[in-house]
């Protein structure tokens, strides 16, 4: 877990050929057949050309990933265009319109292993595409517990990310870590990767104890901020504890609460007393955790029907509206199913 997305602003048609070539070469490196790489070309061409034609540009994020032993490419496409009013109609293969983004969405759905889209009028659109090495690979059904998506992008111009995340699934429950090394670049990356290693190795379950373990390991690094949220299935509770400015919010239907972390820097100075915040764990909750690469004044209630959408679409919608562009940015969204 933890590989970041490459990001490109698409504001000129001349960029399309370059991005197609980048992703085509990535597909071949992952072992895609020439035919499958060609299908990937079609998907990328449709996404990028739609941005130019109908949305006056936008942003494309992509990365290589491995899931269920399957090599895959994940793509997010974000825009601030006029939006799509009739998604069901334009999803028909080959449908096009002269005044709405939509041409070719049916072909994207047909050629990809997973295609999701969310739009509001005069707000724009977010799209998520998963292209697996095997075109007929079927995604496994969602298991009880946490369904999650994470988007992480580097500070513009940096080759490494100073943010990181990891989720540990245990028989007892699961634990989520989101951290942000101070600053950005190699030193921030070193600090947060040391923290991830300590998180993986810790035998503690409660977040406060894990944070103390991490603090002792990263003392020679630049330091970081982090929040850990643990779920115990038997007691049906969240335990949440954080140090520094990782934003954590849990939605129960339309109601939500933000959980305030302690002041301090892990590896340098942390409070002598750390207490976990205890929250009831329920089906249909949504947890959002993100670094300060995103603004904090957002509300899911402002987006029509967003609670029905997947974590991928929720995360990309929040990223589209709130990314600062002045730091690494990571957002994790989990839905309890």
Low-confidence runs (pLDDT<50, min 5 residues)?
A: none
Strands, total number: 15
| Rounded average pLDDT | 94
> Please, what is the oligomeric state?
single chain
Number of helices: 7
Gyration radius over CA: 20 Å
Taking the alpha carbons of the first and last residues, their distance comes to 21 Å
* Helix and strand element order: EHHEEHHEEEEEHHEEEEEEHE
Structural class: alpha+beta
Instruction: Tell me the fraction of residues in β-strands, as a range.
Output: 25-35%
Question: Helix content range of the residues, please?
Answer: 25-40%
Major β-sheet strand ordering: 1-2-3-5-4
- Main beta sheet: 5 strands, antiparallel
Topology:
Blueprint: E1 6-10, H1 14-29, H2 34-54, E2 58-67, E3 70-79, H3 87-90, H4 105-111, E4 114-120, E5 124-132, E6 146-153, E7 163-169, E8 173-181, H5 186-201, H6 207-217, E9 224-232, E10 237-243, E11 247-252, E12 255-258, E13 277-280, E14 286-290, H7 311-322, E15 329-336
Antiparallel strand pairs: 1-2, 2-3, 3-5, 4-5, 6-15, 7-8, 8-9, 9-10, 10-13, 11-12, 11-14, 14-15
Helix pairs in contact: 1-2, 2-4, 5-6
């Amino acid at each position: 877990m933890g590989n970041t997305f490459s990001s490109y602003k698409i504001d000129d048609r001349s960029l399309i050929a370059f991005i197609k070539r980048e992703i085509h070469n990535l597909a071949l490196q992952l072992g895609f057949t020439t035919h499958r790489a060609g299908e990937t070309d079609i998907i990328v061409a449709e996404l990028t050309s739609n941005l130019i034609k109908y949305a006056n540009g936008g942003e494309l994020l992509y990365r290589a990933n491995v899931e269920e032993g399957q090599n895959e490419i994940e793509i997010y496409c974000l825009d601030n265009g006029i939006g799509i009013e009739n998604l069901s109609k334009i999803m028909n293969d080959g449908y096009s319109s002269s005044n709405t983004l939509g041409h070719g969405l049916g072909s994207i759905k047909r050629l990809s292993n997973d295609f999701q889209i969310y739009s509001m009028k005069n707000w724009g659109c977010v799209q998520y595409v998963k292209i697996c090495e095997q075109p007929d690979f079927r995604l496994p059904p969602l298991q009880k517990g946490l369904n999650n998506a994470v988007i992480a992008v580097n500070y513009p111009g940096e080759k490494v990310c100073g943010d990181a995340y990891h989720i540990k699934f245990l028989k007892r429950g699961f634990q989520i870590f989101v951290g942000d090394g101070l600053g950005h670049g190699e030193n921030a990356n070193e600090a947060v990767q040391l923290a991830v290693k300590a998180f993986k190795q810790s035998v503690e379950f409660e977040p406060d104890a894990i944070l103390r373990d991490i603090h002792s390991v990263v003392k020679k690094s630049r330091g970081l901020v982090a929040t850990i949220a643990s779920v115990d299935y038997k007691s049906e509770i969240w335990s949440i504890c954080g140090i520094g400015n990782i934003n954590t919010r849990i939605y129960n239907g339309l109601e939500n609460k933000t959980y305030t972390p302690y002041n301090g820097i892990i590896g340098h100075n942390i409070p002598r007393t750390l207490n976990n915040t205890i929250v009831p764990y329920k089906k249909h909750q949504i947890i959002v955790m993100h670094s300060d690469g995103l603004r904090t004044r957002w509300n899911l209630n402002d987006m029509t029907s967003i609670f029905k959408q997947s974590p991928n679409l929720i995360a990309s919608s929040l990223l589209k509206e709130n990314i600062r562009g002045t730091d690494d940015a990571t957002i994790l969204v989990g839905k309890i199913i």
